[in-house]
Amino acid sequence: MDQHARLEAETSLADRYAALRAGTERLAEPLSPEDQCVQSMPDASPAKWHRAHTTWFFETFVLKPHVEGYEGFDPDFAYLFNSYYLAAGPRHARPRRGMLTRPATARVTAYRAHVDRAMAALLAGPLSPEVATLVELGLRHEEQHQELLLTDALHLMAQNPLNPAMDPAWREATPPPAMLRWLDGPSGMMAVGHDGEGFAFDNEAPRHRVFLEPFAIADRPVSNAEWMEFIADGGYRTASLWMSEGWAQCEAEGWQAPEHWEPRDGNWLGFTPGGLGTLHPDAPVRHISWYEADAYARWAGCRLPTEQEWEVSSALPGFLAAEGHVWQWTGSAYRPYPGFRPWAGAVGEYNGKFMIGQMVLRGGSRATPPGHARPTYRNFFPPGARWQFTGLRLAKDVA
């Protein structure tokens, strides 16, 4: 059991709930009411919406069905702040979340306080296993939205020509060692997936066996300096390195570097929550799509690891998981494991229905709440997505 897991086991559910909700508010604190309302693209959501939606989750799945006499805050919020749960009723269209200038940010703050008071009363007493499980899921759900709140707000700030810092106190993680080493990956029949101990999302199970051919895997993700070599060698101008769909998107959107990179006086600068600054050459490259990661791997004479290779390698001595740096694209499509069963009820829509048209990422990023990720964690995004803290790690076959 790691340090975060031990702390969770020793902390009451009520204290964890209070700490998590306060953490979301701290993330949003540097953002003005105007900042919290704007939606910079259809794939992102306003900070105000994230704060309301995570509150809607606890109200909809915990309080309304399990607390007798609970009075909802506002009946309209069930429609405004549902995300994609069809079983929970109709919802406001995702691409139009930025049009919700009303309710005001202050009313969302009042909504969070209303639900927090009811949750505190509930968590002060004994809980059934069903309710405890739903609360745990709600906590993990809000952790995911904490990361999305940060990355969505970063994308918003990046559209501003003034390059404003959303969080002047932001500090980058310490870069990994500069020299890349190759590790011999475990091969043969291997077990992957969650073993049932502790919390996991339904898409991490069931544990099952896979056969892996011999392979080698890099001990760390690709760095900014290495990515600059790819750019200088014409990586964004060489169609033969790219998948057809990726090359079409690269041309259509004019990609010349990762998202949030900006050329300045012959150098590259990077935009972070702390503002525009110099890129550390040894830091893992981030804000790249799967298409870019795949093209880089081909340019380097390597490939992306499968998610199974990544998982079994994560326990190797010297393997830098890079939690605190970047999520790492794998070569694996996001599909169900053999024997996968979604959770019962509306929360069963959480993961399973997205298992098409997406690619799996492993690891964890600087934007990921501490302790949220684990070796079996399956993050997923469409292959063209670039606004997340996404990077890559190389792998290669061994004869």
How would you portray this structure in words?
The chain has helices at residues 3-10, 13-28, 33-37, 47-66, 77-80, 105-123, 129-158, 224-232, 244-253, 290-299, 307-313, and strands at residues 182-184, 188-192, 208-212, 215-218, 261-264, 267-272, 275-278, 327-333, 359-363, 379-381, 390-392, 395-397. With 399 residues, it is an alpha+beta fold. The mean pLDDT is 95. Helix 2 runs parallel beside helix 7 and helix 4 runs parallel beside helix 6 (105-123).
Strand content: 5-15%
Q: In whole angstroms, how far apart are the ends?
A: 36 Å
What would you call the shape? globular
The percent of residues in helical segments reads 25-40%
Question: What spatial order of strands do you see in the largest sheet?
Answer: 10-9-8-11
Q: SSE order in H/E notation?
A: HHHHHHHEEEEHHEEEHHEEEEE
Q: Total number of β-strand segments?
A: 12
- Largest sheet, if any? 4 strands, mixed
Number of helices: 11
Structural class by SSE content: alpha+beta
Integer-rounded radius of gyration: 21 Å
Unreliable residue stretches: none
The overall average pLDDT, rounded, is 95
